[in-house]
Write a structure and sequence with these properties.
By secondary structure, the chain is of the alpha/beta class. It has one domain: TIM Barrel (Alpha-Beta Barrel). It is 45% helix and 16% strand. β1, α2 and β2 form a beta-alpha-beta unit. The longest helix is centred in the C-terminal third of the chain and has 18 residues.
Amino acid sequence: MKLQSNSFTQAISKGNKQLGIWISLNSPFAAEVTAPAGFDWALVDMEHSINDYFSVLGQLQAFASSNTTAIVRPEWNDAVAVKRLLDMGAPGLLFPMIQSVEEAKQAVAATRYPPHGIRGFSGATRANKFGRVTDYLDRVEGETTVILQIETRAAIEQAVEIASVDGVDGIFFGPADIAADIGKLGKPLDTEVWDLIRPAAAKLREIGVPVGTLVNDAAFATQLLNEGFTFVACGTDTSLLARAADTLLSTVKSGLK
């Protein structure tokens, strides 16, 4: 049995636009509802949700039967969490709040077996179909997507250096935390936020680094993709549910006599 290719890793390396959705409902059933929609990638979030390893596992299983690549964001740049998620079969990871080249190197090292990194070895895991995938050790590092999230002005200033760390597949800009860092808390679409992000993203694209982000605005997501962003999440499952519920209730109430 051979290791399945990671279509998301391949796509962003070629510059193919990838549309994503944020998954925070912590429910395999909700993930199963979302999976057939046809997004290129989905981010299963552990940082700002109540997800645990069991709920993440169920969501990975839900997306496994679809064409959507499920990327997991661990709570932190923590080698133990990374080891467990990779053994669980996560095809890619988004590391939050990377602030320096050293932290970038630590993130990559957590995804690599020795001598290239520090990932612990287990011979029978969900990732290698419990020992049945014969080329797992040879190919997993090339197939696992490693994305680093930069979320402050200081990190943006080091974006090129962070992205140049060997093993980094892409850089993800976190506009919400960048907004907070520059005194614009709660205003991720503020012009000042994007005046910081856009030049940094352009520099990264110039050296061939795929760039991505999350914006809960469909028109702006489209604009960013047309500008050259490679992978953009254009909504979150929680916000979609909230808005749909509010709109439905408001629509019915407005028609009452």
